[in-house]
Task: structure prediction
Amino acid sequence: MSNLFDTALAEHLAVAVATKAQLRAPFERVVAACATALKGGGKLLFFGNGGSAADAQHLATEFTVRYRQDRRALAALALTTDTSA
Result:
C-alpha cells in the first residue's frame, strides 16, 4: 500500500511540475481580466455542474465576503444558485 501511495503521489507531482509553466501565463491573463472587470464595475460569473457547481458557489462567496481582512464585497455570482434566472 505504501508503494502504491508513493507511486501515485510521484505521478501527480510530475504532472503538476510539467504543467506549471504552461498554466502560469493563462492563469495570469484570467486574473488580469477579472481585475479589469471588477475595476470597471463588472462582476464575475461562476458556473459548474455537480461538484463544480459547489465550487462555483464557494468561489463566488469568497469574493462577496470579507475573506481574510475587512474589505468591500467584490461583485461575483454563481449561476448555479438560481437556476430559474
